[in-house]
Amino acid sequence: MQKKKHILLLTTGGTIASVAGGEGLEPHRAGIMDGQIDELRAYYDITVRDIMCLDSSNIQPEQWQQIAEVVFACRNDFDGIVVSHGTDTMAYTASAVTFMLPGINLPVVFTGSQLPLLDVLSDGPGNLRTAFAMAASGHRGVFLAFDRKVMRGCRAVKVRASGFSAFESVNARYAAQVSNRGLEVDEEIVQTGAAAPQLLTQISKDVFLLKLTPGLSPDIFETLTSMGYKGIVVEAFGLGGINVLGSGLDGIRRAVEKGVSVVVTTQCLYDSSDLRVYQVGNKLLELGVIQGRDMTTEAALTKLMWALGQGVTAKDMPALFAQSLAGEITI
Q1: Of 11, 12, 15, 93, which is the active-site residue?
Q2: Is residue 15 annotated as a catalytic residue, yes or no?
Q3: Which positions ≥6 away from 76 have C-beta within 8 Å?
């Protein structure tokens, strides 16, 4: 009989472990998940560890660091790790942990649910089964499993607030999908190579996400700079369009001159920002603005936070953002 894979389940709270309380759904400890875990033990040798019990709206960069630290400490004791997490900020956490754990030597799979696990119609059991299957697959890297699909952690975006197909892999193929043949892994998507695992959790919270709107005052950039922000991710129009008429570029120019890293992505969910296509974009490139290319907003934000935390300077930031560290951009 084939030996069962040893899988560690790290629980952090979220809807999957919630029960109804006096003020709505409240996350509880992993005991809520015991019934489902007992069923999965027929297939896997499972160790469960509660590391926090939070609604994911309350998960901050400090919790990203905590999750990464636990994963790194346990990396040689298990065949794979599953992290149960609330869905609202799971894409941010999975993306941040991706950058914090370069070269991680086992599968780390985030999952959750849209309905609590104790609900008879919950999507939680299926999501856990997919996550455990990916965790047992031997394909190293950080992933997110949901609705019978597995995607890179740095490509996942929550696209639905209540539908079961809550997450999509944006601008990248799925790493794996469940079919009538079981878990089918896309070998070209999963991480390859043999780099030594590292734990690089230092991160800067001095990064602001700005959604561009018509009529937005360019003074916003000077305001953010004066507040101490070291990085700004701008969700621009289309391929990266920003108002350049009048004083439209002045605020960005002053921010860049003061050493603020400005990354431009697009408000469009799919496709890539490309500042080289239009005059407005080329003017931004001349100022030293960084292209976000086809990164998700979550990946652009967490990559910038992580890079600043690692001490990457504004001068070197464009070169870093031109590299794909974990499949977050298409080169």
Answers
A1: 15
A2: yes
A3: 105
